[in-house]
Amino acid sequence: MADHPRLPKHNPNATVLSIDDFMSLDSTVTDIIVDNGMNEPDLTGLDLTRFCRLKSLLVGDYCFSSVNEVKLIGMNELESVVVRENSFTQKREGDNPNRHFYLKDCPKLRSLKMGRYSFSDYKVIEIENVDALESLRIGDDSRYSSNFYGASLELRSVFDVMK
């Protein structure tokens, strides 16, 4: 029955327009695009580890302002993360010790880009075990950005150093 020609085929790409869209996503999606301005005051944590086949995440402008903790951990297929401007920020140039960003154990991640003023009031940013990372861009080098304004960046990886 699953192969019946009138049944819709699984779409591995997902465009998220609301929190209901996000919560109903299948764990096997490969691409997630979050529309500009997607906010939900009750959503305070964003753990994407359930998306076991996710390859690409794109978060639009002015999204997830109430989210205090973001987790991208153990995502074996993740290749690209883009967060556009003013997302994951409640207060520009703030310093909230309860706001954390974790990106760990993503062996295929090649690119991480964060637009200006995103994660502005996050206190913790930890990036660890992303050995394939080729491009890391936080903010805009030609304009003031204040990403992770009060945070220290920890970029760690576990690999053997050639002697």
Mean pLDDT score: 86
Spatially, the strands of the biggest sheet line up as 1-2-4-6-8-10
How large is the share of residues in beta strands? 25-35%
Total helical elements: 1
Q: For the CA atoms, what is the radius of gyration? A: 17 Å
What best-fitting shape do the alpha-carbon axes yield? globular
Number of strands: 11
Question: How would you sum up the major sheet?
Answer: 6 strands, parallel
**Span of the ends, CA to CA:** 58 Å
Taking pLDDT < 50 over at least 5 consecutive residues as the criterion, the unreliable ranges are: 6-11, 158-163
Helix content: under 10%
Structural class: mainly beta
Along the chain, the helix and strand elements come as EHEEEEEEEEEE
Q: Could you explain the architecture of this structure?
A:
The C terminus is likely disordered. This protein has 163 residues and is mainly beta. Strand 1, helix 1 and strand 2 form a beta-alpha-beta unit. The strands form 2 sheets. A 6-stranded parallel β-sheet has the order 1-2-4-6-8-10. Strands 3-5-7-9-11 form a 5-stranded parallel β-sheet, with no helix packed on it.
Summarize this structure briefly.
This protein has 1 helix and 11 strands, in the order E-H-E-E-E-E-E-E-E-E-E-E. The chain has 163 residues and is mostly beta strands.
